[in-house]
Amino acid sequence: MSSSFGTLFKVTTFGESHCPAVGAIVDGVPPRMTLTEADIQVQLDRRRPGQNKLGTDRDEADQVKLLSGVEFGKTLGSPIGLMVANKDQRPGDYGSMSQIPRPSHADYTYRAKYGTHASSGGGRSSARETIGRVAAGAIAEKFLLEEYGIEIVSWVSSVGAVDATGVDMETLTRQQVDGCDVRCPDAVAAEQMTAEILAAREAKDSVGGVLSCVCRNVPAGWGEPAFDRLEALMAHAMLSLPASKGFEIGSGFAGARQRGSVHNDPFVMKNGRLGTETNRSGGVQGGISNGEPVYFRVAFKPPATIGQEQQTVDFDGNPAVLAAKGRHDPCVVARAVPIVETMAALVLADLALIQRMRA
Amino acid sequence: MSSSFGTLFKVTTFGESHCPAVGAIVDGVPPRMTLTEADIQVQLDRRRPGQNKLGTDRDEADQVKLLSGVEFGKTLGSPIGLMVANKDQRPGDYGSMSQIPRPSHADYTYRAKYGTHASSGGGRSSARETIGRVAAGAIAEKFLLEEYGIEIVSWVSSVGAVDATGVDMETLTRQQVDGCDVRCPDAVAAEQMTAEILAAREAKDSVGGVLSCVCRNVPAGWGEPAFDRLEALMAHAMLSLPASKGFEIGSGFAGARQRGSVHNDPFVMKNGRLGTETNRSGGVQGGISNGEPVYFRVAFKPPATIGQEQQTVDFDGNPAVLAAKGRHDPCVVARAVPIVETMAALVLADLALIQRMRA
Amino acid sequence: MSSSFGTLFKVTTFGESHCPAVGAIVDGVPPRMTLTEADIQVQLDRRRPGQNKLGTDRDEADQVKLLSGVEFGKTLGSPIGLMVANKDQRPGDYGSMSQIPRPSHADYTYRAKYGTHASSGGGRSSARETIGRVAAGAIAEKFLLEEYGIEIVSWVSSVGAVDATGVDMETLTRQQVDGCDVRCPDAVAAEQMTAEILAAREAKDSVGGVLSCVCRNVPAGWGEPAFDRLEALMAHAMLSLPASKGFEIGSGFAGARQRGSVHNDPFVMKNGRLGTETNRSGGVQGGISNGEPVYFRVAFKPPATIGQEQQTVDFDGNPAVLAAKGRHDPCVVARAVPIVETMAALVLADLALIQRMRA
Amino acid sequence: MSSSFGTLFKVTTFGESHCPAVGAIVDGVPPRMTLTEADIQVQLDRRRPGQNKLGTDRDEADQVKLLSGVEFGKTLGSPIGLMVANKDQRPGDYGSMSQIPRPSHADYTYRAKYGTHASSGGGRSSARETIGRVAAGAIAEKFLLEEYGIEIVSWVSSVGAVDATGVDMETLTRQQVDGCDVRCPDAVAAEQMTAEILAAREAKDSVGGVLSCVCRNVPAGWGEPAFDRLEALMAHAMLSLPASKGFEIGSGFAGARQRGSVHNDPFVMKNGRLGTETNRSGGVQGGISNGEPVYFRVAFKPPATIGQEQQTVDFDGNPAVLAAKGRHDPCVVARAVPIVETMAALVLADLALIQRMRA
C-alpha cells in the first residue's frame, strides 16, 4: 500500500506539507548497529531547501528526532520511529489558489481521488513527504556501508539542455558532488547549468533535469527474479518521487538502439572473480546484481509551480489566470540528489535482507 | 516477494523455460464476470514465438487451461488457477553452453544467487515466465474494459535507429498494430524496421527497440500517493520484464529538458469535465490518474543470445568463445507488445480495486 | 512483517517501554471523516494503568498527539501519524534484573533473537507497544460505527476460577462494562473477581483471566476465504497481544465436544433477512460474516512479574533468586478490554475496505 | 490477501471442490534441496478421505504433480508449481440443495459475499482447498527437518467428550499416531473415540474434536514481536482451517485460571543451554520461540453436513427441511492431522527464513 515501501527493510512514512510533523517508521533495521540522530541529519541537511542561492529562500532547519528503536546509541532491532517537526504549520497558506487547480500539480487529482484536499501546498504529494524517506534511507545507507562497503553517489547529469560529461563514476564522491550548488561534478557543465537555472528564475519559469546515480560494491546475487528484479524495484522507487518522469538503467534507452554484438558485456577475470569488461547492463543481469556498479538515471520534469501567468480554468470550468506568488524553486534536481540516494539505499537494504534467507 | 504482483488483483506465477508447465494463480478477480479460455488465448497467441518470419522457428502452441475459479463460464470470485503445458521439456538442452556463462544473460547471476541454475535456457529469467503474466493480464483487461471501458494498446515505436512517427494514440487499435509483423502502425517505419531486423539476423546479430503503450479511459483518481504512484507501479511492472532497460511516462526524459511554462498542462473543459489541453503529464499528476490517456514507453535491449562468436571467459575464468547454436529471435519487441499491455492491465486492475475502498 | 497489521486499513506501530515516544501510522483511513484527538483519547484513557485500586500505581497520562492526515478536524485520506510521549524515559530502570532473565518474560528470547535487549522493562514486548494500536483502533471503531453502525464491546468474563454469567451480549454497553473496576458486568462475579485479584496482590502473586468480546451489526459477507477468514485474522490479532494464550470463536472448544445436530445453526427469517436461530458459529460461516453478532473469547495468562521469590538461573546458568521490586499489576485483563476491542476493530475495518473491492 | 500465506516462504493456493484441479505455488523454497513428488505424496495420502472405515467412502487418489521449480530432483529456488487433478468434477452435483443454504455451511455467506456460489459442495470453503496447503507444507517440513531437525507431530486429543491422556509429546511419532484410524495415541481413548464416531454415524449425526500438535527442536529466536508473534501466526494458520473454532498455546485457557507463581516457567540449565523447567509457555515467550517444544491445540466443530433432517429456511425465507444425501464424514479430526502439521510447518518455515535476515 501507498505509504510503505519494502518487504523486510520496510519504511512507512506520514506527513503532508503543513501538518505538525512528518516522519517515518523504519522496520527491519538490524540490531546492534550504532546509530545517532547525527547519522541521519547529514542527509536531511543535504535535502533541505534554502541551502544556497539557487533554491527557495525558506530556511527550514529540519531536525530529526529519534523516537524509538535505539538505546545508548545502538539499534535494538525494533522499529525506529522518527519525526521532523514542521516549523511552518500554516494550513490554508495557499488558500487563494484553492479554487483553481494548478496545472501539472496534484490539486485536481487529489480531489478526484479523495473528494478533499489538504488546503495548503501539495499535501501528501509535496516534497516534504520525502523527509521521512531520507531519514530512513540514511539508516539503510549506514547498514549497507558498514556491512557490505556499498557506496551510493548521485549527481546532477543534466539541467535543461545542458549535459554533464566526463564524470568518473568509479571514483566519484559525495564531497565532489557537493562541491558546487548545482551538484554537478563536471565544472564546465555546472556553470552552464547554474546559468540555465538563474535564467529560468529570471523568466519566472522553471527547468527540469536528470540525475544519475551509482551504487558501488553491491554483491552479486541481489534482486528477485520475475516481478522484483533489482531494476524493477529501483524503477518503482525512483518513479515514486515527486516530479520524476523516467528511469533507465545501464545503457537504457540508448541501448535499445544498439545491436547485441555491441551491447553485450563479455565476462573477464577481475581481482580473482568473474566481472564484465563493459557494463552496459548497469550491474544487473536477469534482474540480479552481477557485482559490477549498479547505475541508473532518473528524469525530473520542470517544477509545475511558476511565477508566470498561466491560462487555465477553475474547478467549475471557468477561465482563470494563475501565477504563483512568492519565490519557488526553479529547479529541484540538486535537492533531489540525497533523495535519489535514499531510495536506492532502501531498495538495496531490502534486497540484502531478503537474499540472507538463502544463506 | 518475487513471484507475486499486486495487492488486491494479485497474480502469482510459476515456471521456468523447460519445466512441465508454466502458469499463474490470479487472485482478486471480481465474481460473476464471463470468462472462458478463449478470452485468454487471444493474448497468448499474440505473444507466441514462431508466428511470423521475423521470430524464431519454434512453433509452441501455448494452450491455456483454466483449473479453477470459473464455473459455467462465469468467475466465482475465488482464485483462478491456470496453466500452459510445456511441449518442449528438454532440461539440459543447452548443456554445451553450461560451463560458459552467456554474456548479458542471467547464467552468472543465477548461480551467484542460488548456487544452482536450471540446466537449460534462461530458467526463471526466460521469456516463458511471462506466459502466466499474459494469461492473468488478459483477465485484467477484460475486467477493465467491461467495467470502465479502458482500452490498452501497445505498439513498436522504434527498432534500432528507426523511429515510428505519426501514430495517433487516441484512436490506435490492436488490429492496426497487428497489421504487420513488426507491430508498428507507421507503415514506412515498419518497413525500415523489418529491414533492420532481417539485417541483424543476417549478421547473426540482434537489435533492440522501444515499445509505446497507451491506456485510454482510465478514470481520474487511480494511483496511491507516495510509494505506489501510478507511474511507480507502471515502472515496476515494465522493468520487471526480461530485457527491459528503461521506462518513461508522458514527456519522460525529453520533458526533463523543458521549461515549466512549456511543460505544464493547462486545464480546459472537455465533454463537461475538467481535462488538460496538452498531456505532457502522461495522464498522471501527483501519482494519480487525471482522466487523460496514460501513455508511456519501455526500452528493450537487443537480445543477448547471438550467433556471432563472442570472446568471453568460462565460470573458472578461462578464455572461451561462445556462439549460440540454432536460430534465435533477433528482435523481441514485436512479441513484447501483448506483454507490455498485460503488465499495464495488471497495474490498472489493482489500482481500480484499491480505489474502490474509497467508494 | 512484524510491526504492521492489515492490508488496506493498515497500522504500523513503534515504541518500546522507555523510549521517547510510542505511536503509530494508520494508513487507509477513509477521507472526510471527522476526527479529533479527543476521539482517540477516550480509548487511551480506558487502557491507561493507574486508573483504580486494582492496577499499578503509575499514573501515566497518555496524551495522544495527531501529527498528520487530519486538517480542520477532518481526515484527508493520507496516513495518520500519531504519538504519545513517554513521560517515564528511564532506560536501565530495571537494571538490577538484567543478568537474570525473568521467568516467562521475553528477556531471554529477545536476547536469542536480536543479540541485544532494551535495558529496561519489556522493550518492544511491553504493554506500552499497545498504545499505538489502541489509538489506531479508536479510528477504526469510529469508521465502523459511522459507516456501518458496528458496536464492539469487550468485558472480563473470568478472573482465575471466577466466571461471569448472565451477560446479555445483544445489549451490553461499554458504560455497563466500565461500571466496576474489574470490568465485569456480572455484579456478583465482579465482586468475587475483585477479591481474587486483591488476594493475589496480597500474596505478591498474579492471576490470569479471560476476556469476551462481541461485535454487533457486522454486515454479512466480510472475511476472505482460505487464509484470511474472519476468525483467522481475529485469532491472529488477539494472539498478538502480550500475555494472550488462547482464542475461541462462537462455541469454541466447547463446540468441539458437541454433535452436529446440536451445534448447527438453522436459518430463520429475522427482520426481513436470513438469520440464524442460534449462533454457535459466532457470526461466521466458512470464514465469512453471516450478519449475526461476531463473538469470541481470549485467554490471558497471569502476569509473569510477581513479588514472590522465584528460583531460577541467570544468563550464565548460575542459580539465582528473583523477586520483582515495586508494585506490579496482579491482573491485566481489565486494562486489556479496550485493547481487545481495538484489535477487533482493526480486523473489521480492514475486511470492510477489502470487501468494497467487490462493490 | 486471501489466497496467500507467508512472507518469504509463501504459499498461494487455488481450487474449489469440483473444478479441474487444486494446487499451489510455493515461493521461497530454498534452492538445492532434494525434492520429489513422493516427498509430498506422503502427507497427501495421510489427508485423503476414504482411507478407513471411519471416513467417507470416496476414494480419491490425490496424485500430486510438480510443475516447476525442481529439476533432476533438486529445487532451483524458483517458485514450485504443483497440482492435483480432481477426478470428481461434477459441478452441480449437490444441486438439489442449492435453494436451501445448509445450516452452519458457507452457502449463505458466499452468496452474501460474491453474489454467486460454486454450484457444488463447499466451493472454496471445501476441505479440498487444503490439498494445495498440505503439498506446500510437506515441502516446508522437509526444509525444517533437514536444516534444523524440527519434528512436527499432531494427534487427536479429543473426540466429543472423550479425552486422550498420557501422551508423551517429547517422544511421540507420526507412526504411533497413525497406529489407529482415529489417530489418537492413547489406545484406551482411541477405542472410545471410535465408538463415539460410529455412534454419531449411526445417528446420522456428526461429532467434533480437538487436535494437539507439538513442534520439537524449534531454535530459540523465531517469531516477530508485536503483530507477528509466533503464536499469532500459528493461531492465524489454524483458524484458517475449515471447521476450526479455537486455538490455545501452552497452558491456554486453563492457564488463565492460574496464579503467576504456578504458571511461570523458571529457567534451568539443559544440555549446556538455558531451558525452562516447565513449559506452560508452550515454547514461546514474548512471541518468540525459547527453544522448548512449541505445542498447541485446535478445536474443530462437528461437521455441518449431517444425514438427520434439519428444520431451516430456503434463500427466500420459506420453511424447508434439509437432510444430506449420501454418506458424509461424521468426524474430520483424524484427517485434519496432516493439515494441522502442514500449517505449523508453513508458519515455522516462514519465520525461519525471516530470522535469517538477522544472521
Task: Give me a quick take on this structure.
4 copies of one chain form a homotetramer. Chain A is of the alpha+beta class and 359 residues long. Chain A has a single domain, classed as Chorismate synthase, AroC fold (4-Layer Sandwich), CATH 3.60.150.10.
3D structure, described in words:
4 copies of one chain form a homotetramer. With 359 residues, chain A is of the alpha+beta class. Chain A has one domain (4-358): Chorismate synthase AroC (Chorismate synthase, AroC fold, 4-Layer Sandwich). In chain A, 28% of the residues lie in helices and 22% in strands. The first copy, chain A, is built from 9 helices and 18 strands. Chain A has a 5-stranded antiparallel β-sheet with strand order 1-2-3-7-4, covered by helices on one side. A 5-stranded antiparallel β-sheet of chain A has the order 9-8-10-16-11. A two-stranded antiparallel sheet of chain A has the order 5-6. In chain A, helix 3 (130-148) packs across helix 9 (333-355). The relative contact order of chain A is 0.17. Chains in contact: A-B, A-C, A-D, B-C, B-D, C-D. Strand 11 of chain A pairs antiparallel with strand 11 of chain B.
